[in-house]
Amino acid sequence: MKESKCVMLGDSSVGKSSVMYRFVRNIFYDTIPCIPEGIFYRDPLKINNESIKFQMWDTVGQERFRSLNKYYYKNAQFVVIVFDVNDQKSFDNVRYWFQQQQQFTLNSAVIIVGNKIDLLTREVTIKQGEDLANELECQYIKCSAKTGQNIIEIFEKIGRIWLSKPQCKEIETPILQKQEESSQKSCF
Ligand SMILES: Nc1nc2c(ncn2[C@@H]2O[C@H](COP(=O)(O)OP(=O)(O)OP(=O)(O)O)[C@@H](O)[C@H]2O)c(=O)[nH]1
Ligand SMILES: [Mg+2]
């Protein structure tokens, strides 16, 4: 089994924590109960006959926390860059987050995620999302943490990207030595 570090990046309030909670616990909060920063685990996903255990690292989008982010990026195999499809500015800032991960990770699998598609106030089209992903040579997927639409698909997709990379054969992660559930920090 491959245990792999997955970092959630993106502007504040785009739904990073919500996507993560939906993926890890299949739960959604209208109001996130506390500042959720830490490491979470989910039961492994089976992708292309490989079992991948996602070690989820949430980050906080606010600018005053950004100097901490280098620590989060370190050794990440997966980078999920989230924006809100109803917020043009969060989409414009995807480039910033992409550059950050390029600076601090090596050959990570990257996916761009347009969240909150359940809302009817769309500012960013699917084509704009796909065009940007093509330009940055990564993949795009839209989702809703609220309804759960496409949440598992994000991680299946990024898992397949990672497995297609030659370097994935070389790293059998234990980035954090098996602290497993005992090290989970959570709001629950
Ligand atoms: N309608 C809708 N609301 C969402 C969705 N995802 C998140 N939200 C809401 O958006 C708000 C912000 O979500 P968070 O998950 O806290 O956003 P974040 O990116 O973690 O924000 P920071 O931790 O501040 O960087 C919350 O009120 C969520 O309930 C979604 O898919 N649809
Ligand atoms: Mg958050």
Automatic annotation (TrEMBL):
Gene3D superfamilies: P-loop containing nucleotide triphosphate hydrolases. It comes from the Eukaryota. PROSITE patterns: ARF, RAB, RAS, RHO. Keywords: GTP-binding, Nucleotide-binding. InterPro entries: P-loop_NTPase (IPR027417), Rab (IPR050227), Small_GTP-bd (IPR005225), Small_GTPase (IPR001806). GO terms for molecular function: GTP binding; GTPase activity. It holds the Pfam family Ras. The keyword Nucleotide-binding applies. The keyword Glycoprotein does not apply. SUPFAM superfamilies: P-loop containing nucleoside triphosphate hydrolases. PANTHER family: RAS-RELATED PROTEIN RAB. This is Rab2a. It comes from Hexamita inflata. The lineage of its organism: Eukaryota, Metamonada, Diplomonadida, Hexamitidae, Hexamitinae.
